[in-house]
Amino acid sequence: MDKLSEIFNVPTVQVEKIDVEVVDIIPKETEKSEKIESDYEKTRNNLHEILRQGQDALNHALEVAKVSEHPRAFEVVGGLMKQLSDINHQLLDLHTKHAKLENKDAEKQQNPTNVTNNTMFVGSTTELSKMIEQMRKDK
Fold first, then answer.
1. Short-list 44, 135, 22, CA closest to 90
2. Cut 0.70: pTM above it
3. Using one digit for the tens of pLDDT, what is the confidence trace for 58-101?
4. Which of 51, 58, 125, 132 has a 20 to 30 Å separation from 102 between CA atoms?
5. Residue 28's closest CA among 36, 18, 16, 17?
6. How many other C-beta atoms are found inside a 10 Å radius of the C-beta of residue 57?
7. Complete DSSP assignment for 7-34
């Protein structure tokens, strides 16, 4: 290191060693499932609130459409109905996805994945051929 500093005509820098403590930041399974439950409840409540407000807006738009008898007003009512129908489908999809996550977590707890390798021979095919040939000669 001194030679490089001489070559580049720079002063030698003293390096201090810093001790660093390594901390694992891996969330626990319970924290993960609690977050999933929390997000599920928030999403579910949001969808229900959107449906409630959408119903109010639909009723009001339907009254406006009836009074004005304007085709655009009825078109807006039809659009609102479709959007509310889509939100209902989203709510059902949310329940399906939540059920899948719950089943996946339960399955992980019941069936931990253990891999057992029962190795009979470790080596190349050439070594295996030689071993088989030797076994034949021994018979």
1. 44
2. no
3. 999 999 999 999 999 999 999 999 999 999 999 999 999 999 88
4. 51
5. 36
6. 15
7. HTT-PPPPPPP-----------HHHHHH
